[in-house]
Amino acid sequence: MKIPEAVIKIADDIRVMRIRGASRIAQAAALGLKIAAERYGGNSVDDFINYLTKVKEVLENTRPTAVSLPNALSYVMSRVFKRYNSGAKLKELIEVTIKAAEEFVRYSRTATKRIGEIGARRIRDGDIILTHCNSSAALSVIIRAFEEGKNLRVYATETRPKFQGYITAKTLYERGINVTLIPDSAVRLIMKKVDRVFVGADAVAANGAVVNKIGTSLIALAAHEARVNFFVAAETYKFSPTTVIGGLVEIEERSPLEVVSEEFLKATRNVIVRNPAFDVTPPEYIDAIITERGVIPPQAAIIILKEEYGWALKDYMLRVTSEMEEVSL
Amino acid sequence: MRPMENYSKYYKVIEDIKYGRIQSATEATLAVLRTAVRFTEEARGVSEVRNFLKHLFFKSIEARPTNALLINVIRGAILSIKEAIDLNDMKRLREVFNEYYNEIVKEIKVMNDAIAKMAINRIEDGDHVLTYSYSTIVMKALKLAKDKEKNIRVYVPESRPGLEGLNTARELERYGIPVTLFVDSATRYFMKEVNKVLIGAEAIAANGAIVSKVGTSLVALAAHEARVNVFVLAPTLKFSPETIYGELVELLEKEPESFISIEHMHKMGLKINDKFNVKVPMFDVTPPEYIDAIITERGLIAPQAVTFMLREIYGWPFQFAPLKELLGD
Predict the structure, then answer these.
(1) Residue A86 bridge partners (DSSP)
(2) Would you put residue A127 in left (φ > 0), alpha (ψ -120 to 50) or beta?
């Protein structure tokens, strides 16, 4: 069974960043599985499972860093496999896939809203806030605080190389929130005036380190230096279960053409243009991570991981131990 | 007196500085002085020169008030031609002005050469050096290191707004030095690979703080965190004696249009008004505690020793004519 065009399109959109932001990517991936299930034309349970696994791989191999992507996919797939293993029929499996995908999207949207409610309590009337890139979770916090009647001013970094800061500025501006765009390099200069920083996350590691848009760790450092509170807004499906067993979060490096023109590249062959999309902010620069389940210190990330992915972790652990046994044999 | 429109070619230099077409502090200073000398050559009378110079000096400082070299060189120029102007002696005016110009060009070259030579004692074979923005002296030092067959790689952030980093990368490429270029936000990400930071300065204040292209303080902070040494390469002509009297170095901001195109802004549905603004600072201040040494033509000093060196140059109590007084009437 061929993978439907619509699913290929979603994968492409994620790859070229027409769909971007960890939450939006996760929702799109779940939607991809849903579409694949709806359009399945075969008639065998095993064929469906193979087909769905292939779809999952296509969606998963688009961008390596955002952990929300594999987490969203395994949210759906784990439910499908559970039923498959207990001998469910094809019709039932298709239904489960669709239901689980819809459930994930709904959950994701509620989570972002809930983060807004919780995070807004950390904002005081008159606060000056700085945000980086374009995070739906961080924006949810800022917008919620504004809707509660708090007077705010926001500094949005332009966020090179792809200027997502302009989208943030536009979103806030359209809500009537006072916003000022600044170059990324002006962060330390501006930090003196800032009361609080809110950013999103692409992945949260087991030790509480946060992987987010390149530049986040530099902002966290400048905030730490100026004793400005630094908050990360992240849904629990951005926590990375593989880091518990020592896995590293891979930092994606994108095309140099996002940074410089083709002419520049051609004219300067000895210049390597590097374009890492993310960096890692150590937990000691983070005051708290705001999740839909509540505010946690970054060092407590493991609690979220155990609660959310206990099942998966057990699985990983089993695999690791059996591999170790094999080695020792 | 000739009609004003004939002056426009002389005033072009002010625009060039104001809009960043001349980026380096040294080049800006020499361009202003060259213009002043050329005008003096072509002018008919002393009073014409006096009026023109007053305007040129005043406006060029206004265009770049942070440039201590410019201020110091203008002060020197005024002092050296003052007598000829008072005597209304056009021939003598041309002579002394030409002499002063040649002297300054030579002095800057000698100073920069001396600094570059000292700086390369601190550059070792295999070093990964990070530099920020574009600095004439740093370029000289890096080229010299290459000439001495020290294999180095230079890390260059693009340095928005202004993108001076691209010029730096292009020039280093011409010297045959390998370069790694990236967005400013990635500075902390790459700092782990770097073992030295070399930067230039616009002005150095009495407490050893450095005024430089915006983003420099962020680079220094990231270097400090990673225990990477930061060296500032600057002749003592960039020390700002005004700051001894408590004057603040004025930090220039650019027009938003220099940073983001109006069309782009409109396309995004953004318009500058009371709710949306763009802030484009050009310079920031790096505190002395993040600087390991300032390399001057008189030797390598701790930033905290700037006052000591200012005493050496200007005597104690300070004997220098504040520019405001010289330009005043």
Answers:
(1) none
(2) beta
Q: Do residues B291 and B208 both lie within one domain?
A: yes
Superfamily of domain A123-312: Translation initiation factor eif-2b; domain 2 (3.40.50.10470)
B300 vs B316: CA distance, rounded Å: 22
DSSP secondary structure letters along A240-295: -GGGGGTPPPPPPB--GGGTS-HHHHHH-TTEEE--B-EEEE-GGG-SEEEETTEE
Percent of chain A with pLDDT over 90: 86
In angstroms, rounded to a whole number, what is the distance separating the alpha carbons of residues A279 and A257?
19
Distances (CA, A) of B189 to B36, B157, B160, B274: 45, 11, 17, 36
Residue B135 to residue B65: CA distance in whole angstroms? 18
pLDDT at A316 over 70: no
User: Would you say residue A178 has pLDDT above 60?
Assistant: yes
Spans of all domains in chain A: 5-113, 123-312
pLDDT, one tens digit per residue, over A95-127 is 999 999 999 999 999 999 999 999 999 999 999
**Tokens 């987010």 map to which residue?**
A212
Question: B49 is in which domain, residue-wise?
Answer: 4-111
pLDDT in tens, A26-60: 999 999 999 999 999 999 999 999 999 999 999 99
Q: State the Rg of chain B over Cα.
A: 21
Top CATH class of A5-113 equals: mainly alpha
Residue A184 annotated in active site: no
Alpha-carbon gap, residue A203 to A210, rounded angstroms: 6
How high is the pLDDT of residue A325? 66
Nearest to A222 among B169, B180, B221 (CB): B221
* Complex ipTM value: 0.90
What residues of chain B lie within 8 A of the CB of A169, using their CB? 268, 270, 276
Distance CA(B317)–CA(A299), nearest Å, equals 56
Better pLDDT: B241 or B188: B188
Identify the pLDDT of residue A312: 65
Residue type, A220: A
Task: For residue B143, give the CATH number of its domain.
Answer: 3.40.50.10470
Statement to judge: residues B40 and B130 lie in one domain:
no
- Name the CA dihedral angle for A289, A294, A300, A306, rounded to a multiple of 10 degrees: -120
Q: Is the pLDDT of residue A142 over 50?
A: yes
- Tell me how crowded residue B143 is: count the other CB atoms within 10 A of its CB: 18
**Residues in B 143-182 with any Cβ partner in A closer than 8 A:** 157-161, 166, 169-170, 172-173, 176-182
Chain A residues in contact with B228 by the CB 8 A cut-off are: none
Evaluate if residue B272 carries a pLDDT over 80.
Answer: yes
- DSSP letters along B141-156, please? HHHHHHHTT---EEEE
Better pLDDT: B271 or B73: B73
What's the residue count for chain B? 329
Cα–Cα distance for residue pair B136/B216, rounded to 1 Å: 16
- Determine whether B11 is exposed, middle or buried from the number of CB atoms within 10 Å of its CB (0-12, 13-18, 19+): middle
Q: What chain B residue is nearest to A153 in terms of C-alpha separation? A: B275
A279 is known as an active-site residue:
no
pLDDT for position B3: 46
